[in-house]
Specification:
- By secondary structure, this protein is mainly α.
- It folds into three domains: about 5-90; about 175-205; about 215-339.
- It contains 16 helices and two strands.
- A two-stranded antiparallel ribbon has the order 1-2.
- β1 and β2 (about 35-40) form a beta hairpin.
- α1 (about 5-25) packs antiparallel against α2, α6 crosses α7 (about 185-200) and α11 packs parallel to α13.
- The protein is rod-shaped.
Length: about 350
């Protein structure tokens, strides 16, 4: 029964009792309370307890109704918080949520400690927000760029960051904007934009951008490989290449990779001098220098380096030199894997 119906029914009952009592006994009755005489009709004295009980019951109902209202409100808020927790977790924003209702405390505590992901292309839920977000996540994970504005995600969200990286693959102007405002963007987005610009823009544009960008190792290698791919003219001088290399820490494999790319671009004298200078400053480049020397049959220089090396150094090159000394015509690529 609703509160309004209860109040109406109770008042009708009280009035009916009072009317009935008054119809059979219309007299008054007085009582003395602390020297104060209270004179009321007998019908009133009969319904006073009912009125007090009525008031108490209404207050009781109001109290528990208000308590239930607060509990329902907490559940509603916790439900919204749970949806936001799932939304942020799926999007890579690990923001913990506190839940007030017992209904959600346990599940909320569990979800706060988990990382949720969507891999199933058939993902579906009745919650429109999560359902739409799930399909957006699948798009982003497949390399597509899509709008995420409706979800109001933080810029720190891994989903937003990956979506921005996807955007660099389709929007050259966006890439240029990222590279012109490097202080406002994360390093992985800068790298993605830079790699894309290397594929689509002229080297004149790229050189201008270098003034504002601190290149990491991968960006430096990609830049040098792109430079080595030009057939019409050299874009970097040897000194410029050395300056770029000095800013990062390259491995033996990195140097070999770069050396192989530049052998198709530079004259023998230039590339030999370049890697001689590089190896004099970084021992990791010694094998790349040997590779170049073998490419151009600089046997005397090779022999000098190998003779001054430790027994366990440059094993493949020593083997290749022995083969050449025995009249076998092999090169480094034919006996060793080089990416």
């Amino acid at each position: 029964m609703g509160l309004k119906k209860y109040i109406f029914s109770a008042l009708v009952l009280i009035i009916a009792i009072a009317a009935y009592v008054f119809s059979i006994e219309s007299g008054d009755y007085k009582i003395d309370i602390a020297n104060n005489v209270v004179l009321l009709p007998i019908a009133v004295w009969i319904v006073v307890p009912a009125i007090l009980l009525f008031i108490a019951s209404v207050l009781h109902i109001l109290y528990y109704s208000f308590k239930q209202y607060l509990n329902n409100r907490s559940i509603t808020k916790d439900k919204d918080a749970l949806i936001n927790l799932i939304k942020n977790n799926l999007s890579g924003t690990n923001t913990p949520y506190t839940f007030k209702s017992d209904t959600f405390k346990e599940v909320g505590n569990i979800l706060n400690q988990l990382n949720i992901s969507i891999d199933n292309s058939d993902f579906a839920t009745e919650n429109k927000t999560i359902d739409n977000l799930g399909h957006k996540i699948l798009q982003v994970n497949s390399g597509e760029y899509t709008s995420l504005k409706e979800f109001k995600l933080s810029n720190d969200s891994t989903l937003v960051q990956q979506n921005n990286i996807n955007k660099t693959k389709i929007d050259d102007n966006y890439c240029l904007d990222i590279l012109n405002k490097v202080s406002n963007n994360p390093s992985d987005l800068i790298e993605a934009a830079f790699i894309q610009v290397l594929k689509t823009k002229s080297f004149t544009t790229i050189k201008k951008l270098l003034e504002n960008i601190d290149l990491n190792k991968n960006m430096t290698i990609e830049l040098l490989v792109t430079d080595a791919s030009y057939e019409d003219q050299f874009t970097f001088t040897s000194s410029e290449i050395i300056k770029l290399i000095e800013k990062v820490e390259l491995t033996r494999e990195d140097y070999l990779y770069i050396a192989k790319k530049y052998t198709n671009r530079m004259s023998p004298d230039q590339i030999i001098k370049l890697f001689e200078d590089i190896s004099s400053n970084d021992e990791e480049a010694n094998e790349a220098y040997l590779y170049i020397l073998f490419e151009y049959e600089m046997i005397d220089d090779i022999r000098e380096i190998i003779n001054n090396s430790q027994k366990d150094e440059y094993i493949p090159y020593k083997a290749l030199l022995d083969l050449k000394d025995s009249g076998k015509q092999y090169n480094f690529d034919s006996i060793c894997y080089l990416k």
